[in-house]
Amino acid sequence: MYGDQATIRRILTELGDTWAVVGLSDNQDRAAYGVARVLQRFGKRVVPVHPKAQTVHGEPGYPSLEAIPFRVDVVDVFVNSGLAGPVADQAVAIGADAVWFQLGVVDEAAYRRTREAGLAMVMDRCPAIEIPAL
User: Fold this and answer.
1) What's the pLDDT score for residue 31?
2) Rounded to whole angstroms, how far apart are CA atoms 121 and 92?
3) Are the beta carbons of 126 and 102 closer than 8 angstroms?
4) Is 62 helix (H, G, I), strand (E, B) or coil?
């Protein structure tokens, strides 16, 4: 398991309310769209990060994590596993507190690097499933 209950609880309740959702676009058929809506319902600010930099759920988007002009607490990753490692490295570089790889997103080396850099990390889980259980 890549994220024990204590880590999941800490990310969802203590580490801040600004979540950059990498891979979030205005495509309502994508899982990121629905998960972002759930995060908003639970009081999180959701910042879309997508090459198209679209406004989603009322929040303006940015083409990359580095382009966000304010602090991000958690980076939620909705890209395929082959692209997830560099996103985790960017999360470390921007000073995020945590990285969350969504269901099906697995990169064990990125998980180790991110944890070694001092960030909380969850992998292969979904906050929209976890947060209502709290």
Assistant:
1) 94
2) 11
3) yes
4) strand
Q: Where is 96: in which H helix or E strand? A: none
Angle among Cα 96, 39, 80 to the nearest 5 degrees reads: 65
C-alpha 26/C-alpha 37 separation (Å) is: 11
Classify residue 65 by its DSSP letter: G
Instruction: Please enumerate in sequence order all residues whose Cβ is within 8 A of that of 95, keeping only pairs 6 or more positions apart, or say none.
Output: 71
What contacts 24+ positions apart, CB below 8 Å, involve 39-47? 39/76, 39/127, 39/128, 39/131, 42/12, 42/131, 42/132, 43/17, 44/17, 44/18, 44/19, 45/17, 45/18, 45/19, 46/19, 46/21, 47/18, 47/19, 47/20, 47/21, 47/72
What's the chain's Rg over C-alpha atoms? 13
Question: Is residue 81 over pLDDT 90?
Answer: yes
> Treating both helix axes as pointing N-terminal to C-terminal, what angle do 108-116 and 81-94 enclose, rounded to 10 degrees?
10
Task: Say how many CA atoms lie within 13 Å of 111 toward its Cβ.
Answer: 16
**Token digits of residue 69:** 């002009």
Q: Please report the pLDDT score of residue 2 as a whole number.
A: 78
